[in-house]
Automatic annotation (TrEMBL):
This is Uncharacterized protein. It comes from Variovorax gossypii.
Length: 67
């Protein structure tokens, strides 16, 4: 898990990691200015913003918004 100050940074990292490691990545918000990029198997302790697989956002009931 890695922490970033903006949603844009976190989603960029999640997108890249999901492409290269062929894994599903989750971006979630911990506080107003703290976003976390984690593997889908990691524990989520915040509001899920988006889920990425193979570099693309995945439509899921867990995500808060679609891009």
């Amino acid at each position: 898990m890695e922490t970033y100050p903006t949603l844009r940074q976190a989603t960029g990292v999640a997108r890249t990691l999901s492409k290269h490691s062929s894994s599903t990545m989750v971006v979630y918000r911990v506080t107003e200015q703290k976003f976390v990029t984690a593997h889908a198997s990691d524990r989520v302790e915040g509001t899920i913003e988006a889920v990425y697989r193979d570099g693309y956002v995945v439509q899921t009931l867990l995500s808060k918004r679609a891009e």
